[in-house]
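Researcher: I'm comparing several assemblies side by side, and this is the next one on my list. It has 950 residues spread over three chains. Same procedure as the others: predict the full complex and return the structure.
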Amino acid sequence: MFPEIGQFSLILSLFFALSLAFLPLIGYRKGNRFLLQSAQPLTFIMSALVLVSFVILSASFLMDDFSVLYVSQNSNSQLPVWYKFSALWGGHEGSLLLWVLVLSGWCSAVAIKVRTLPEDVGPVVLSVLGMICVGFLSFLLFTSSPFARLLPDVPADGGDLNPLLQDFGLIVHPPVLYMGYVGFSVAFAFAVAALITGNLNASWARWVRPWTAAAWAFLTLGITLGSWWAYYELGWGGWWFWDPVENASFMPWLAGTALLHSLAVTEKRGVFKSWTVLLAIFTFSLSLLGAFLVRSGVLTSVHSFAADPTRGMFILALLVVFVGGSLLLYAIRAAEVRSSVSFGATGREAWLLLNNILLTVLTLTVLLGTLYPLIFDALGLGKISVGAPYFNSVFTPIALLLIVFMAVGPLSKWHHTPFNVIFKVCSVAAVVAVLSAGLVVYCYEFGFTVWLSLAVAFWGVCLSFTDWFGKVSAGAKGIIPRARQLPRNYYGMLLAHLGMVVTLVGIVLVSVNSQESMLRLSPGDRARVAGYEFHFDQMEQVKGPNYVASKGQFTAYYANKVVAVLHPEKRFFTTRQQVMTEAALDAGFTRDLYVSLGERLDDSAWGVRIYVKSFVRWIWLGGLMMMAGGLLAALDKRYRKRTRG
Amino acid sequence: MRCIKGIFLLCGMWLSLSAVAQEEMTFRTELNKTRYQSLVEELRCPKCQNQNLADSGSGIAVDLREQVYQMIEQGKTDQEIVDYMVARYGEFVLYRPQHSTATFLLWYGPFILLGIGLLAFIFVVMTNRKRQGRAL
Amino acid sequence: MRKLLFFIPLAVFLILGVVLYLQLGKDTQYMPSVLVGKKVPAFTLVSLQDDQVYTHQDLPTAPYLINFWGTWCPACHVEHPFLMALADSGVTIIGIDYKDKKDLAEQWLEQKGNPYQIVLMDEMGRFGMDMGVTGAPETFVVDGSGVVVYRHQGVVNAENWPDIKGYMK
């Protein structure tokens, strides 16, 4: 009975989404206040209905209702309860429901804030969001309903959740990632609303900025969590594979970063308006494209959903409607937008323009690398692979260039910056950076590329602190009161930029200074890796809630002192008859010890992979800093201004 | 978004070979070891979802790793090893696509875009300067 | 002129849309063989039944199939009856016992029947590697002049046989 209510509630919410998509727009055309004001309640009702069906599906999972096909495919009575809940988004249908839930959540958030917008703008924004909801709700209902039943032959037990997904990562990664992905719909809706109403000015940019910053912060966290999860779960210690599915989340991030910066210029100076709108459309399009790549089965990936061409067809149709439609609208309306403000070659506008150009080039590079095999195949040229070596040699130099400019931008002033001011600070920072990076490289015998990258990192740190110090030391008041006076927005920026540098340092050091060994070890054996001695103490059989495992015990010594005891496992999941490697790691600020069991070689010997990864945590630490920066920027006081009368 | 299909299962089912390779390889020189590691990272396992030879546990990956090892120890150059693989499994196994007219856009496209972007930057800044001059 | 610039994003998107549309529904696992259009690589292998040494010169001169199989491979169990039916209908199949043990293979053929004209043992998988084999079963169609014309990965069955047969000319 309950699953039917869930299904019915989704159908109802589709009707409300349809009303939301049209009524306020008609109201806008006809100048009908009643229709305009219907946007807010319609949004709330639609979201509430989606929430109802989400709760019902969760309940079906928690109560082991295997009469629901989706539950029977993705859960099992033996599954620990927290995985039962997260199994909801372990497959295509449920994760799409999560997507819709997150989307309706963002819609409601906009609806709550709608009074801070002009009377004829807010409802149009909600209307556009309503259209997106219509698209995804019909996708869910027509191709992938999670409430389909298996009646009357109810299976005794479910097929279980894929063991790779029975992990903490599944609980947190998808919801956060979707918060980011879907959050860019809001920026998109504002952009389309601006094109419809012609209301495109500095205050428009001020409305969009906090939404974009919030979505960006979530996406940053989502990608960071995903990278961390893949690192410990997949068992070979990689943290980024340039896999199409990863690129699918990385592209909106890059474009969203560009959008965030371009919005700053539009807000403060009223320039780049049509470019900013295009970026908002572009970012959202890349989110949709990501959904297409992951769910349509056109690409092979280590982490894709079960492929289905009809679903692919549906998302492609959504892409054509939303992206094609908005780009057409853009082509027609954007030419009318002109900005009259001018700026000099050294003004902050110019620096941010450069930032946007580089980020766009980077986004297109990832897009090109991801889609090139597809284009190649479509043209009948055969099959090729584009992987990490390509991206490392093409993406990295441009990204380093971006970070070089990233550090300089904040020092500049709007409109015009006296050239000698920047030049003096930069030359000092350059000397300091090159020398200190050189010292590190000399001490540890690294190569040229490391020198270059570390110099860029030090340069970033130097200039960020110089900028901050310059801001707090000027003026009569003391340093601390002035530091407090600086807006959150500024600290958000500072934190995010430093986070970028921290991530860069992590990436550089983990790639050049890590050691790995693949060894044949029996209990009692010892191995030396990067100065650590690993002692394979014993092997035992253990039983988990839904698996049996061979559990090893390794003790790591450094200078004859015990630093860590590690328990890597090889788990055999009984329901799915699947073997999983559970790596063991000892996390540290400057290094991770990572032990993962391979194949059993004979009665006592095992293939064992041991890694010592230096500074790998910094990659995610930087990600967290960027996320925090984004949130700080989103919560800046300026955006929480008075509500309309 | 990271729903991981049973890759291990898939690769394992296809080639659940009984023979297990000796993972610990002893190289004649340190250079050979480095070459081996970078080669197995740049070669794609031809039967897996999207994994390189180093990361994959499938039978064919084990065989191909062994082959790379043998060829390195026999004194073959990297290019000879890559050619050997391409002759049998196609360009698909190269994560670093070969430079050719068909991959020209892939390799140089980003830099062409960068060039166009920088030209656009100069153009925008110059026109702005002119406008500024007029305004004064 | 300036107006046209704003249509560029739309145009690029539409082209991309067509590419994505073309790729929908394609089997991403399908991998064309590099060997198509080339001669069967040279080999020297020992036959399972009579311990004779065979080389590529001993291969048939009329169109035939090369089938890689092994007793360790579950899908080969599924495929075997169909191969028997093919052999009965007069199709020449050369079997390559891929990365397998001699006694197990002999037992298999004894119990299930032998659809192969010759069974050659590729214990180390060297010939398999030369043929670009990634697993078993895999089947190659070779024409009368000894040139590989088609490769099929996975089980040969009644469903896909008409396609494969089309290459046997």
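Model: For your comparison table: The longest helix of chain C spans residues 8-23.
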